[in-house]
Amino acid sequence: MLALIKKSLALTLILTLIVTIGNLTTPLLIKYILDHFIQVKSTDTAAFTLWTSLTFATFVVTSLIWYVEQLRFQQTAFTIVKDLRLALFTDLQRKGMRFYDKVPSGSIVSRLTNDTEAITDMFVSVLSTAVSAVFTLIGIYITMFFLNVKLALICLVLLPISIWIIYLYQRYSTAFYQQAREKLSEMNAKLAESISGMPIIQQFSQEKRLQDEFSETNEAYFTASFRNTKLNGLLLGPAIQLLSGIGIAIVLFYFGWASLSTSITVGLVFVFINYIQQLFNPIQQIMERLAFFQQAVVAASRIFKMMDDTEYVPAQVETATQQIKAGQVEFKNVSFSYDGQQDVLSNISFIARPGETVALVGHTGSGKSSIINLMMRFYEFERGDILIDGESIKTYATAELRAKMGLVLQDSFLYYGTIADNIRLKNEAITDAQIRAAAEFVQADRFIETFANGYDHRVVERGAAFSQGQKQLLSFARTIVTNPKILVLDEATASIDTETEQLIQEGLVRIRQGRTTLAIAHRLSTIRDAEQILVLDHGQIVERGTHDELIAQRGIYFSMYELQSKGEAITDR
């Protein structure tokens, strides 16, 4: 792909050079017609027609080549940005959860859309203009020196002034564009957060506060953008236009003065005025395109800063061929910290054997979800080890871990499509029969078959038309259809009604058979049959045992169970 892009750019540069030569040639042809036919009132109609046709043909050919050149430039630009966008999206798939913990989703979307579009504008508007400008400037000065050395030297003085104006603009506009892009990213982040959290916003009457915050950010974006607009209005058009006028005045004054002592042709005056206009046109275009260039520089820095973030998914031995067969899980003195300073897990050790269920209970912040996060390899740990079938979890290929470990979260996520699509998740190896079997296994078939289209029933965004219990049953079906050796349940029944929970509990009895199950439990009544219950407090295992053993100890678990039992009794009344 890189070789093709280089070839395309090389061809585009050649076409740009041809267009520049054409643009420089036409004034010379017009000069010849003015000096040899119009000024001297020549009657050679055949020669006049020939030169006029040649000039017109040069215009036509130059225009056609210019069209092809612009088309190639834009095609190359879109190809480069398309590959950059794909590379950025691919890199996002490799990022670990630490990255997503610290970067707002709206900011990520802004980089993937707005910032990549800014780079497209740079290629299309800036590079093509800059390359054409360089060729044009060089060609014009070479031709001007060939026609009149003194006047060319006088006009050359205007070039450093133009460069100084460009430098001045670039110096001050960079900071303005940086501020504008940051405010735009912040505005996108607020917008994404507001849309995703609309139910909570309306429930707690937060509309006014969100409107005020968005208005404040929007105003800041307007201020930063308008500061640069004022700079553009001063330095982009007027300053360069003034220089162009000075150049034309110099040409007219020089030829007017020279005409007192020597003969000056109309064609020569026309060529110099035309070249002065051509000289400042690309400079003015560059100045106008600097706005796009500044946006692109800022956008590129934001994109590459995100791509340079090394918070990747924990590394695995991707070439490993070993497979998870039994599914025994062992935590050996595992300690973990999210920020590298304060441990959220301290010396966690336990064994979950095939066919057994190990339940994790504890108050909020005790470390339950952190154990699951490490188990699923969402975060890297540095102290201790997690073993599967006696081998470190780090030595398995990622594909093997994902294939043999099934995760059901408290908040199930459904994609736009059909029910079958959401269970299959684009895995074409899963047949329709397996999908139906998985749904029947978790008893999701009861509500699926009430739809006219059954498994082809459409699922709207995030499954908004389904109840929480129905979405959770589909999540169980999605997990069980892959037949995992290790089942991880992160408070999978915490947000559903009692009737649906009863269905899920009946399904879980069958789901857990022959599998190693790690379950975070919110309702302690759902884990009474667990072979081992681990009670966590401040990142440590403070109690362990079966339900009956922990009740007999009359410790933290006993207090939690008593509190829940009383709460359920009051609810039943």
From TrEMBL:
The chain crosses the membrane at residues 48-68, 122-145, 151-169, 234-257, 263-280. One of its GO terms (molecular function) is ATP binding. Residues 329-563 form the ABC transporter domain. GO terms for cellular component: plasma membrane. The keyword Transport applies. CDD domains: ABC_6TM_TmrA_like (cd18544), ABCC_Glucan_exporter_like (cd03254). PROSITE patterns: ABC_TM1F, ABC_TRANSPORTER_1, ABC_TRANSPORTER_2. It is a multi-pass membrane protein. It is found in: Cell membrane. The keyword Hydrolase does not apply. SMART domains: AAA (SM00382). Keywords: ATP-binding, Membrane, Nucleotide-binding, Transmembrane, Transmembrane helix, Transport. Residues 10-295 form the ABC transmembrane type-1 domain. This is ABC transporter ATP-binding protein. It comes from Brochothrix campestris FSL F6-1037.
